[in-house]
Amino acid sequence: PNMGFVYQRKGVILLFRLRRIEESVNALERAVALESRDRVAHVYLGLALIEAKRWSEAAERMELALSLDPESRDAMIGLVIANTELQRFDRAEAALRDIERLAPGSPQIPRLRDRLEQKRVEVR
Fold it and tell me: Which of 23, 66, 95, 99 has the most CB atoms at less than 10 Å from its CB?
């Protein structure tokens, strides 16, 4: 069996079904180590890192996923969230514009924009 995929599935179950965030991060790190070119594994790891509030690592992971697939909307969404939390508003705004360009009617856009604006207000 493809062990990278096995660890990816384990990480997804731990993250989304069981909410065992750190175990999910560990499993997804193994998946990425085994399948370094798997964009989906990088996105899932980025999402787990977001759940763990490890914003900088999450942003790096989402950027890596985008280097593998420049049109990955999931990676862009993760990048908006991580950069918003890191108060890197220009980067968050750029990723949000990319989402708007690729998927103009995406239901995530208003929520991401609200999150970004709320964070800007908090730090003023």
Answer: 95
> Yes or no: is domain 3-123 CATH 1.10.1790.10?
no
Geometric angle at alpha carbon 87, from 84 and 88, rounded to 5°: 85
Length of the chain: 124
49 and 32 Cβ atoms separated by less than 8 Å: no
Q: What average pLDDT does the segment 52-61 reach? A: 98
80 neighbors 116 (Cβ within 8 angstroms): yes
> DSSP characters for 4-24?
HHHHHHHHHIIIIIS--HHHH
Q: How high is the mean pLDDT of the chain?
A: 94
Task: Compute the distance between CA of residue 37 and CA of residue 83 in angstroms, rounded to an integer.
Answer: 23
What is the C-alpha to C-alpha distance for residues 124 and 52, in angstroms, rounded to an integer?
A: 25
What pLDDT is attached to residue 14?
A: 85
Residue pair 62/75 in contact by the 8 Å Cβ criterion: yes
